[in-house]
């Protein structure tokens, strides 16, 4: 079965292209029917408040929430990480995500668009050269539950990548920097689930 990429808003095309580079089938998801034909889901970067509204409007919000609760493998980048967090700090009024990931994330933790930056990181489960990571109005993870493994931190110790069983969440955008190894890590999670 292909990987589904939630295609309501944000950089879903870049995620689909990244899976293409590593020979994995990935398809855009806009309906519950399309979701049922996948064995995993990527929630892209973009704007979490818009993804929330569109997921409700497309009837996908509850089905995705339930699937995550049931252990469906899911990978969120940036806004996608925000959508997976159980607690959102600095959210707008009424903001809610799918949840399931036992963390608190703070939105826009580095400031505005002009404070976006790129850096190199060590990443648990990714061998070889450091991961080149782009942060664009990125969130950080402020609290993690006991069952959450920290996969990467910034030099100042702020957490920017986590895994909890079948849930992978990262603050940055490998799909924008030609970095395929995190997508490969997710495919291994899907294969093992
Ligand atoms: N700041 C955005 C949000 O709150 C996330 C930014 C991104 O995905 N690059 O959803």
UniProtKB/TrEMBL annotation:
Which catalytic reaction applies to this protein?
Answer: aldehydo-D-ribose 5-phosphate + D-glyceraldehyde 3-phosphate + L-glutamine = pyridoxal 5'-phosphate + L-glutamate + phosphate + 3 H2O + H(+); L-glutamine + H2O = L-glutamate + NH4(+)
- GO BP, sorted A to Z: L-glutamine catabolic process; pyridoxal phosphate biosynthetic process; pyridoxine metabolic process
Q: Which UniProt keywords apply?
A: Glutamine amidotransferase, Hydrolase, Lyase, Pyridoxal phosphate
Pathway assignment reads: Cofactor biosynthesis; pyridoxal 5'-phosphate biosynthesis
Statement: the UniProt record of this protein carries the keyword Hydrolase: yes
Provide the residue positions that the database annotates as binding L-glutamine: 46-48, 107, 136-137
Molecular function GO terms recorded: glutaminase activity; pyridoxal 5'-phosphate synthase (glutamine hydrolysing) activity
Q: Known EC number(s)?
A: 4.3.3.6, 3.5.1.2
The annotated active site, in chain numbering, is 78 (nucleophile), 173 (charge relay system), 175 (charge relay system)
PROSITE patterns named in the record? GATASE_TYPE_1, PDXT_SNO_1, PDXT_SNO_2
Which Gene Ontology CC terms are recorded? cytosol; glutaminase complex
Q: How does it assemble?
A: In the presence of PdxS, forms a dodecamer of heterodimers. Only shows activity in the heterodimer.
**PANTHER family found in the cross-reference section:** PYRIDOXAL 5'-PHOSPHATE SYNTHASE SUBUNIT SNO, PYRIDOXAL 5'-PHOSPHATE SYNTHASE SUBUNIT SNO1-RELATED
Family statement drawn from the similarity comment of this UniProt entry: Belongs to the glutaminase PdxT/SNO family.
- Role noted for this protein: Catalyzes the hydrolysis of glutamine to glutamate and ammonia as part of the biosynthesis of pyridoxal 5'-phosphate. The resulting ammonia molecule is channeled to the active site of PdxS.
| Name the record gives this protein | Pyridoxal 5'-phosphate synthase subunit PdxT
Q: Which organism is it from?
A: Rhodoluna lacicola
- The gene behind this protein is pdxT
């Amino acid at each position: 079965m292909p990987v589904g990429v939630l295609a309501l808003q944000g950089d879903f095309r870049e995620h689909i292209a990244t899976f293409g580079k590593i020979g994995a089938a990935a398809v855009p998801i806009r309906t519950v029917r399309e979701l049922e034909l996948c064995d995993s889901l990527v929630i892209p970067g973009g704007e979490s408040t818009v993804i929330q509204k569109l997921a409700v409007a497309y009837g996908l919000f509850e089905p995705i929430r339930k699937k995550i609760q049931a252990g469906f493998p899911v990978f969120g980048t940036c806004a996608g990480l925000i959508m997976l967090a159980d607690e959102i700090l600095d959210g707008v009024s009424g903001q809610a995500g799918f949840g399931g990931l036992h963390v608190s994330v703070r939105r826009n933790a580095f400031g505005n668009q002009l404070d976006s930056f790129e850096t190199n990181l060590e990443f648990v489960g990714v061998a070889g050269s450091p991961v080149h990571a782009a942060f664009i109005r990125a969130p950080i993870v402020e609290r993690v539950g006991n069952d959450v493994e920290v996969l990467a931190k910034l030099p100042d110790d702020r957490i920017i990548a986590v895994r909890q069983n079948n849930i992978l969440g990262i603050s940055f955008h490998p799909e924008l920097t030609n970095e395929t190894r995190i997508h490969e890590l997710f495919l291994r999670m899907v294969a093992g689930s």
